[in-house]
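Reply to dn_fold:

You asked what the input looked like. This is it:
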Amino acid sequence: MTAQTSEGRTDRKPVAAPPRHPRRGGPLRLALVVGALGVVYGDIGTSPIYALQTIFNPADPHPVPVSTANVYGIVSLIFWSVTIIVTVFYVGFAMRADNDGEGGIMALITLIRRHAAGRGRKTALVLAALGIFGAALFLGDSMITPAISVLSAVEGIKTVSTGLESFIIPVTAVIIILLFAFQKHGTHVIGRWFGPIMIVWFSTLALLGIGGIAGNPEILRALSPTYALDFVFGNFGTAFFALAAVILAFTGAEALYADMGHFGRKPISRAWILIVFPSVMLNYMGQGALILQDTANVSGSFFLLAPEALRIPLLLLTTVATVIAAQAVISGAFSVAAQASELGYLPRLRIAHTSEHWYGQIYVPWINWLLMASVLVLVFAFRTSEALAFAYGMAVIATIVIVVLLFLYVARMRWNAPRWLLATGGSLLVAITGTFLAASSTKIVHGAWLPLLIGLLAFTVMITWQKGREVVTGERERREGSLREFVDRLREGEPKVARVPGTAVFLDRGKHSAPLAMRSNLEQNHARHAQIVILSVETEPVPRVAEAERLEVDQLGDDRDAVIHVTARFGYMETPDVPRALEAIEAEQAEGRRLNLDRATYFLSTIQLKPGRAKTMATWRKHLFIATSHITADAAEHFRLPRDRTMIIGSHIEV
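and this is what came back:
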């Protein structure tokens, strides 16, 4: 804690801060790897169900003819695309650009904002805006992934009996509802159950793949990059359009990064290298071998790898695995939304931390139910995984391209990476991912418009909230006036008010303005408490703040005034428990002026918004900002204030 006197002197008393993460050794490390399998890798681990089938789908607007050369080329292209984008870029590089253990686009944005202060500001602002759009696209991906994953699995019913097709949509809807209803129990519980199932799943992928390869070992030649290069440059027209479907092989790559705060970099990396990557590649090879044996196997190539007697058990396992696939992006969406909220791009959301040991494991109810409703709408609107596949790749690859650009900027700022190295490696990454993005854009009229529309809507909400928040904050500060001047007036007896016993805690946004609630209380009730605490809660661009740096106390007046200002700092992944944080001040106060917080009264200022004539934003954006404000979480609950001792005083502000 930092205690700052009115003369500006700062006294620091070291306080032992708790460890940021639990020790990860032995059984705990293994449990994190298993948990990562259950939460992080469901999406990319279930891509073999539909990726090859979609690439060779004759109903595609730009179908890839089934031929020996094309099968070798596609399998090779999948292998090397996943290797470069997931293994090399995400696991090898991007996941090292963490913000104190947290990953994903929002972590990159905070790193850019922090390191670019005072230099390269314009570039940083452009990249931050681009990153917000990427985060919005990821939220769109979080809606499409559960729909296409569960649909593709339940559609396996058709390989058992065509008479069961009418049950596909109802069964899919029930599974999705159950999945989202279970989110409140937390990712650690979900991972505990899903992890062992995914071990069985990846083992099954590998065994099915090995069985297919055994029928035609020649498919192993596709490991050579020459087949991918021959396919791309030998028939660029066909290959270019095929890239839009090849993207399906690495959907879920961003979830690895976004979910890093749930399990840590090492468990996620080890699970990928040792289990996930070999398993999915063996399965793609096996499917390629099966298609080479008989081109009719293209339709349902994944399920046809299994003997007929085992297809029903495989169907059940696949259904469970795709439910788990949805979990990867749902967990990532919780992390992205929570970070966006704390950084001022979304309203304050109610966030439940679901693990005592891992700070990044959270549940965001509002986002959960929004995603569930959106996923159900997509299922009933598109009705087949093939129809959704056209829309799927755009959100994925656009997010990846943005992550690549942000990462290159962070690599230069944070690690001072040589320019020649960034130019060489960065150009290659941008060229590869940019080509995939260009190919995916050919599907815009066939459904790829959907994730772009979702992303654009989410992006508009985010930047509108950020702008509206700035407008409201500026107007509040104008009305509140100087805090120092207000305290000086109190000392001089203006306005004349009675002093009543007790402690009042007024929550405010800064230390320079007087809280609206305090002004209204004095003007309307003509009374003040014997002790006054003005509290500002700041969210730092780091996940957690050490206890030694938690509080800063400024003695605004002399002992007679008994008015202090407290700045309480929390990381954006922490729960701001105000009463608990203030306990440290109680211990610091000298006898005779010690704060009495046992029965302290907490005052909150609430703002009623309405559109005004000032040209701060377009009229439609003003209405959007006001509508978005209605989802703001209750401040008393957010700051853990005691309900029976909290008073709310309202004011009107025009935007």
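The chain has two domains: 38-466, 481-654.
Hope that clears it up.
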